[in-house]
Amino acid sequence: MSIKLVATDMDGTFLDGKGQFDMDRLKQLLAQFKEKGMYFAVASGRGLLSLEKLFEEVRDEIIFIAENGSVVEFHGQDLYEAVMPQEFYLRVFDKLTECPYINVNELLLTGKHGCYVLETVDPTYLSFSAHYNENIQKVASFAEVKDEIFKFTTNFAEEEVAAGEAWVNEHIEGVKAMTTGYKSIDIVLDYVDKGVAIVELAKKLNLEMSQVMAFGDNLNDLHMMQVVGHPIAPENARPEILEVAKEVIGHHAAQSVMTYMEGL
After folding, report:
1. Is 4 in contact with 212 (CB distance < 8 Å)?
2. Which residues have CB under 8 Å from 127's CB, separation 6+?
3. Domain parsing of the chain, residue ranges
4. 3-class DSSP state of 191
5. Class assignment of domain 86-189?
């Protein structure tokens, strides 16, 4: 098995039950990968700024696939990105205000330089968002934002996630909603996801997809798992992910992904 690129989702996959990982183990793993001519990528719905902070000690040694595939960064260079023009995301926001499942005070825009919520943001949602996003700024209107925007993120009541996602996909042209957790969805450009991003990344690195391995657990990982040669899932993954995985390993809480990668 000649693996040259390993990509892993974060929450529910690489990170343990507390949303953490062992940095010392990762440093040793990265040294092992470098020796073997392998690349390591983190592929997450989290914002790029958030991922860069999480992996600050090793940020120059890993590839970031952030914002659910909207941007790929390596050594501070954007290898791929898909941003929403202001006119476009303001039109999408206007449509989102019509959605019966969406509360605009539980809505966040993520961009290159920061994240943006309305001044009327729900404090609980703001606190929740701060775990996954950096530099969150309050604005009176999203029309004030001067950043380049990758996506919208919002939360639903757990029983309404599927209906909310379906509503967005049915009623708003040019975007795609995807579940990132059991209460959250991301709304990205309709041609964007982790699978598209990892294919573009492989091209940049002159790799065949048969040389790429990916770990994922949720629906926003599905296309990535379908396009790589070696899709691996932790046992806690959703049924749809377990179905496409070539191998199922231990629970994410036991750091099973790190353990598996150490054996490559």
Report:
1. yes
2. none
3. 5-82+192-262, 86-189
4. coil
5. alpha beta
Q: How many CB atoms lie within 10 A of CB 56?
A: 10
Q: What is the DSSP string of 145-207?
A: --SPEEEEEEE--GGGHHHHHHHHHHH-TTEEEEESSSSEEEEEETT-SHHHHHHHHHHHTT-
pLDDT of residue 182: 63
Q: What is the pLDDT of residue 152?
A: 96
Q: Which CATH topology does 5-82+192-262 take? A: Rossmann fold (3.40.50)
Entry pTM: 0.89
Strand-pairing partners, residue 138, are: 117
Residue 107's closest CA among 161, 46, 152? 152
Instruction: Measure the CA–CA gap between 99 and 130, rounded to whole angstroms.
Output: 24
**Burial label, 241 (beta-carbon count in 10 A; 0-12, 13-18, 19+):** buried
